[in-house]
């Protein structure tokens, strides 16, 4: 093989993504911590506990990323640490995140900061969480605080992570806090998060004081959209296809449309829908954040309506490995004609067996999407280290660095995937040798 397979655009963000609660450890001030104490909620009875002790070891973790050629990092600020009680800001937590940002800068890692990644302070959860419209204003106050306090150190903001996943897991399937099963409430929650995103978008721009890049107004604001491919399972049973289309309409299309037009239109047959105009939401994306993991085959009546295609390769969590879907998802969001940041993408693979090849094949599809016109400006692999994978506990191992949670020293072990990723990040290109090494003829 000769020549490059793909060269990525100049200034491309190469990084890894994580969220506070999944890696930091030791925070009992949010609703996830409380949920983890309820027997039967988390796989194997796991608890986030000390997680990766990233709260203490962030500098060391960022050094690993920087040595691997990353030039960016996605993290989240933990709302419940910064505002552990209503009306109280915790100065030590604020100082902590300044130290985190200073460390990222020292390591040449440009921060992309998420302001809501699934967790809520207990005082918010106890007032009805995102079902209560007042939460929108409380969140806006937190966003305003962060914009003023950290705005000169952060140029890239992600307001909310996967509003649709958050709403459906918490209020429809009930697998996440608060464990409700009410589709109408799930839609109300999703609408409130979308409205909050629109308001946060305006606040972050109003407060923008020039940013770390020192070129006048520099805030880039978006949210992260989970975009699974949804397809009917049985071609001969059209109701499967119908359900897939209905789910796609509310879970994928309506969310993107709302952020472009400002019109929230959410409906599910048999549930109370939401129709709302939010002027601040119209045109509220400077970039589209895409989280892509898999394709689901959808069943009309099954208890678990989402399955991997029979016989397809799957990850440790049973998610299909489907790199072609990544290209399709990228081309789908490219229709919005906005820059695209891949805010998450990865594979649960405790032994790093199939990840090396799946990663390279996926980056090939990313390169193809760019060649086909998608304006992709960065990629954040989920995740830098293994971490607490929500209701799957420590069963979902997504790390470029494996963490041995049984060892109190929590050692980070570099995987082959980390090494391959590092070569791509260093050269800003996908070289034929890398593909050959993982057995791909591209
Ligand atoms: C995404 C979440 C992230 C992580 C990955 C595997 O839905 O945003 O926190 O759990 O899935």
Automatic annotation (TrEMBL):
SUPFAM superfamilies: (Trans)glycosidases. GO terms for biological process: carbohydrate metabolic process. Transmembrane segments: none annotated. Keywords: Glycosidase, Hydrolase. InterPro entries: GH, GH_1_N_CS, Glyco_hydro_1. One of its GO terms (molecular function) is beta-glucosidase activity. Belongs to the glycosyl hydrolase 1 family. This is Glycoside hydrolase family 1 protein.
